[in-house]
Amino acid sequence: MTGIPKPMTLAQPAEDEFLAYDREHLWHPYTSMTDPTPVRLVTGAHGARLALADGREVVDGMSSWWAAVHGYRHPALDRAVTDQLGQMAHVMFGGLTHVPAVELGRRLVEITPDPLDKVFLADSGSVAVEVALKMVLQHQRGTGRPERTRMLTVLGGYHGDTFDCMSVTDPVAGMHAIWRGLLPEQVFAPRPPSYDATPPDLQAWAGAFRALAAAHAHELAGIVVEPLLQGAGGMRPYLEACLHVFREVADEHDLVLVFDEIATGFGRTGHLFVSEVVTPDILCIGKALTGGYLTLAAVLTTDEVARGISASESGVLMHGPTYMGNPLACAVASASIDLLREGDWKADVARINRALTAGLEPLRATPGVADVRTLGAVGVVQLDHAVDVVAATEAALAAGAWLRPFRDLVYAMPPYVISDDELDRLVAGIRGAVRAG
């Protein structure tokens, strides 16, 4: 790329000082404060690469936790932020509106399936799921079924780190199992069958899911799932036919169907949204919504659900974040959507899938590897043991790639702009991480 400012360089004493202060005072995600794992100091980023303080440039296999689909320092996204900054950075959304929010709402209604035409702008993916769950409960109250207060979901899922989100995350094998007993008790069905499962597996699962829904129909308000790919719960794709089962069961028992596409939206699976295959009543999107520039999420729903919420005792949706509809975030989100619509993201995702499939499949024969799977621009190697995160990360960096393994998984979800040469480097990094982890 041209016109990219040179990343900041730091002398070794300065780098050491920043890292020492970070270690002493800053809490990183899912990390011990008293015994933290090492962090690397990033001084710049461009395209699909991160510049580290030690002078190395590494391919970002994580897209900044799956958000930076256009890579870093994209001129159109930079321009959207700076242009909006010249007008206003923020204004409250209560009683006011602004062009960036209206234009983003217009785009979201256009690119998502009918009849999802009501848009709530939230702060983050976790907040979006919280709002969606609140929508489900208020809709049931507004339609005369206040006794329906529980959600039906599946094991293996992950929906965020706030309390109601944790309640619909796998209570046994999920990362929030320690909170079991303190969270609302939801209804969990077996994991959906893997994408390579046989028809009998699908039939058995569907039968069990239908039976569980029927047994709890009197108390269920909705169904919430990650469609087609379970993300942080295990990076596990499942059969598309399961989506139709979710829809049929929701319709049969008057349940509100929620698809959490925080991770899967904006092309990651090969669909712009999995909701194009089966349309939910509520759709949660985030992460790649702003191309990784600013935190923003959205919840889309139908006129029917909105009418139910309005008929509840409050008459309004009881949620309103301080930074709801932030103009900077809305402006860059619209620019990110325009890039997807004008470009050939589908070809890029297919290209990434071919490279990850070809590069990772041979790892099946590697000792310690339990499974290899790919879907869209997602590549996963599952080990038969917990990953040594420090050793695996070092090995990936030595090969020129940034990865963030977790549990028993070494995986990649790279930016769509990644080049073929960078894909080769990323695959080498995954191989190194698998062998070291």
From TrEMBL:
<feature type="modified residue" description="N6-(pyridoxal phosphate)lysine">
    <location>
        <position position="287"/>
    </location>
</feature>
<protein>
    <recommendedName>
        <fullName>Adenosylmethionine-8-amino-7-oxononanoate aminotransferase</fullName>
        <ecNumber>2.6.1.62</ecNumber>
    </recommendedName>
</protein>
<feature type="binding site">
    <location>
        <position position="65"/>
    </location>
    <ligand>
        <name>substrate</name>
    </ligand>
</feature>
<feature type="binding site">
    <location>
        <position position="404"/>
    </location>
    <ligand>
        <name>substrate</name>
    </ligand>
</feature>
<dbReference type="InterPro" id="IPR015424">
    <property type="entry name" value="PyrdxlP-dep_Trfase"/>
</dbReference>
<feature type="binding site">
    <location>
        <position position="320"/>
    </location>
    <ligand>
        <name>substrate</name>
    </ligand>
</feature>
<dbReference type="InterPro" id="IPR049704">
    <property type="entry name" value="Aminotrans_3_PPA_site"/>
</dbReference>
<keyword id="KW-0663">Pyridoxal phosphate</keyword>
<dbReference type="InterPro" id="IPR005814">
    <property type="entry name" value="Aminotrans_3"/>
</dbReference>
<comment type="similarity">
    <text>Belongs to the class-III pyridoxal-phosphate-dependent aminotransferase family. BioA subfamily.</text>
</comment>
<feature type="binding site">
    <location>
        <begin position="321"/>
        <end position="322"/>
    </location>
    <ligand>
        <name>pyridoxal 5'-phosphate</name>
    </ligand>
</feature>
<keyword id="KW-0963">Cytoplasm</keyword>
<feature type="site" description="Participates in the substrate recognition with KAPA and in a stacking interaction with the adenine ring of SAM">
    <location>
        <position position="30"/>
    </location>
</feature>
<keyword id="KW-0808">Transferase</keyword>
<keyword id="KW-0093">Biotin biosynthesis</keyword>
<feature type="binding site">
    <location>
        <position position="287"/>
    </location>
    <ligand>
        <name>substrate</name>
    </ligand>
</feature>
<feature type="binding site">
    <location>
        <position position="158"/>
    </location>
    <ligand>
        <name>substrate</name>
    </ligand>
</feature>
<comment type="function">
    <text>Catalyzes the transfer of the alpha-amino group from S-adenosyl-L-methionine (SAM) to 7-keto-8-aminopelargonic acid (KAPA) to form 7,8-diaminopelargonic acid (DAPA). It is the only aminotransferase known to utilize SAM as an amino donor.</text>
</comment>
<feature type="binding site">
    <location>
        <position position="260"/>
    </location>
    <ligand>
        <name>pyridoxal 5'-phosphate</name>
    </ligand>
</feature>
<dbReference type="InterPro" id="IPR005815">
    <property type="entry name" value="BioA"/>
</dbReference>
<comment type="pathway">
    <text>Cofactor biosynthesis; biotin biosynthesis; 7,8-diaminononanoate from 8-amino-7-oxononanoate (SAM route): step 1/1.</text>
</comment>
<keyword id="KW-0032">Aminotransferase</keyword>
<dbReference type="InterPro" id="IPR015422">
    <property type="entry name" value="PyrdxlP-dep_Trfase_small"/>
</dbReference>
<dbReference type="InterPro" id="IPR015421">
    <property type="entry name" value="PyrdxlP-dep_Trfase_major"/>
</dbReference>
<dbReference type="GO" id="GO:0004015">
    <property type="term" value="F:adenosylmethionine-8-amino-7-oxononanoate transaminase activity"/>
</dbReference>
<dbReference type="Pfam" id="PF00202">
    <property type="entry name" value="Aminotran_3"/>
</dbReference>
<feature type="binding site">
    <location>
        <begin position="125"/>
        <end position="126"/>
    </location>
    <ligand>
        <name>pyridoxal 5'-phosphate</name>
    </ligand>
</feature>
<keyword id="KW-0949">S-adenosyl-L-methionine</keyword>
<comment type="subunit">
    <text>Homodimer.</text>
</comment>
